[in-house]
């Protein structure tokens, strides 16, 4: 969760953000957001995709389902978990797998999000297939690449295990999807349903992200508890100036309107994959109707003279992985007048 957030902007941008914050306050926009008021956007079907606003509270009666997942994979029968999924169906799991160490007694989580033959072969050759659990993650079940990967691995396991092949597979998909039907037909060990009102790239706190977290042996109860604290911090009753989510959104939006549409993501060591997830989240979510924010990830830390006037820098750090040279580089950007947002995670 966000421990603190600090923004360093030149005067004109700071004034523009303050003006937008006043507009949001006068229009009760934060309340409208939490009420899923589609008129904040185009007034069409936007409310149908805002299920991520409620997903944290929904876990209060469902955390036991993640315990079942953890118990299933923590019995020692699996050495590896291979998640098959594209885009938003796998990005959160990828971040988790790269950001947290392997937990004792739990399998290693690997991600396969490509049908490139060389990559598939490399991943396959590194697995103990008889002790691998396959997670097929697809919201609709109609993602061609995921289906091809599933069919390849399932056919191979069926030749060896016969009708019990499905016991090495778990599905994460929406109820009524094509994949849901396949999982029932092929006898999957478990099926975990998605939420129809949550798009793939917003699905980190749904089963799409939490089932892989449980498989890794992570403390999902703590993850959800921290998410609840962030929900409270970003709630409708919190003043806009103290609301980290709203202020971050206003800064990115106002910055883009003022020509700062290249959001440059910088992260502490060990959080490298986080930028890739944010890249999709920002680009796909804002890239509509000829407008959008262009995220730049994995560029490295340059000096102020290396950048033009269209950048807005977001530095995501964590105290336990503090890097002096990175902090010095970000400080130099701030001192040069470049717009910088620092987000410190706990």
From TrEMBL:
Keyword terms, alphabetized: Gluconeogenesis, Glycolysis, Isomerase
Signal peptide: none
GO biological process: gluconeogenesis; glucose 6-phosphate metabolic process; glycolytic process
GO cellular component, one term: cytosol
Keyword Membrane: no
InterPro entries in the cross-refs: G6P_Isomerase (IPR001672), SIS_dom_sf (IPR046348)
One example GO MF annotation: glucose-6-phosphate isomerase activity
Protein's UniProt name: Glucose-6-phosphate isomerase
